[in-house]
Amino acid sequence: MKIIGLTGGIACGKSTVSAYLKQKGAFIIDGDAIARQLSEPKKSIWQAYVNHFGDKVLNADNTLNRRLIGQIVFTDEKEKTWMNTTMHPLIRDEIVKQIDECRQNGIEVVILDIPLLYEANWDKFADEVWVVKISRQLQIERIQNRDGLTKEEAISRIDAQMSLEEKAKRADVVIDSSNAPEVTLQLVEKIWNERLL
């Protein structure tokens, strides 16, 4: 079984690459999807946020107010550290469980689609790491358009992660997704054929 760590910055096109790799037959372990699942009311991440911040981080329907939590943790280094040290072990346990299930089921290629792959030291689970990268300016624009954030909020989220330059230096493969999606996917097809077939 080959395990590829797939990472990049926020709004860099990683999800597009991941979806394409799934079409190619890879099994995707999606760190964001795991976090969302564990953030549902009464689940482990939800409980951790409520225990730490109180009911102020809940919407009227008892779901987490992600925007408020983002404003708190991406502007306060202490709270960001708390979030990472609390959430990463909860997510890691589920990732390890899914990797074990893939091994038992004879899956050939597993993609660890994890934004904070390096920051959480989850790259150690991967045989190699692919980083999806774009320019900082394009990243800011994409975040603003996609998430409806201000420029300052977008920059705050970008700066809360390891820089794309640092991720690219550590990577085995760098995928430039600055162009149209079809151009990016042609590059991914080439990489897939060279490295995984």
Q: Can you walk through the features of this model?
A:
The protein has 197 residues and is α/β, with parallel strands linked by helices. The protein has a single domain, classed as P-loop containing nucleotide triphosphate hydrolases (Rossmann fold, 3-Layer(aba) Sandwich). 55% of the residues lie in helices and 13% in strands. α3 (44-53) runs antiparallel to α5 and α6 (136-147) crosses α7. The protein starts with a strand and ends with a helix.
Question: What are the key terms here?
Answer:
EC 2.7.1.24, coenzyme a biosynthesis, 197 residues, 9 helices, 5 strands, Rossmann fold, five-stranded parallel beta sheet, alpha/beta
Radius of gyration: 17 Å
How much beta, percentage-wise?
5-15%
Question: Structural class per helix/strand content?
Answer: alpha/beta
Q: How many DSSP-defined strands?
A: 5
**Global geometry:** globular
- The number of distinct helices, counting runs of at least 4 residues, comes to 9
Strand count, sense and barrel status of the largest sheet are: 5 strands, parallel
Q: What is the CATH-assigned architecture?
A: 3-Layer(aba) Sandwich
CATH class: Alpha Beta
Q: Uncertain runs with pLDDT below 50, 5 residues or more?
A: none
Mean pLDDT: 95
Helix content: 40-55%
Q: What is the domain total for the residues? A: 1
Catalytic activity: 3'-dephospho-CoA + ATP = ADP + CoA + H(+)
Subcellular location: Cytoplasm
GO biological process, one term: coenzyme A biosynthetic process
GO molecular function: ATP binding; dephospho-CoA kinase activity
